[in-house]
Amino acid sequence: MAKTVKSAKPVKSKPSSAPLHQLTPDSLERIKKSIHSILTEVGEDTTREGLIDTPKRYAKALDYLTSGYRKTAKEVVGDALFTEGSSQIVIVRDIELFSMCEHHMLPFYGKAHVAYIPNGKIIGLSKIPRIVDVFARRLQVQERLTNQISEALNEILKPSGVAVIIEAFHLCMMMRGVEKQSSYTITSSMLGDFYNDPLTRKELMSLLGGLGGTGRR
Ligand SMILES: [Zn+2]
Prior knowledge:
The protein is an alpha+beta fold. It contains nine helices and seven strands, in the order H-H-H-H-E-E-E-E-H-E-H-E-H-E-H-H. Helix content is 38%, strand content 23%.
């Protein structure tokens, strides 16, 4: 009869975090090949000096720019949560943001402003920009990016309220399409007290003061 060994918990091999955050060598190799084809298709000579290593450089850049797929908000926050009685609004504003639109794979960039109202816990302030990056370093639409940041903070911190406002320029609108160089897009996601209570939302907006700088201030 087979013996049940109670102590034998399934042994999970703990993956070292660095390689997990990177594309596999096989993926990088396939991306290099694809970029090589694209360069040929647009009429380039892939053997000339400036282009010879471009597929490799692009694959590496793409690895970095999409590294958010291989991270979670929980993971970047780690144990940087602290018990604290304050229930006043905390704002980290003007967080530089770089992402890529999923429709054109062109960059959009600007600023994120993140606010929350603690409910027993506060988060290490430097972790907020890192949460922004987890979701920005993916192919995105600005609307979803905004919601993902607020939902992640809501889940991790369980605060009384979360607000995320993003102002961004989209290169797919500036370089092509409608070719509007100075219009930018504002999105917001309000949860909890920021959503339910107009006074709290008003306080936030007055603390944020004039928005509308988006990288050109
Ligand atoms: Zn686009």
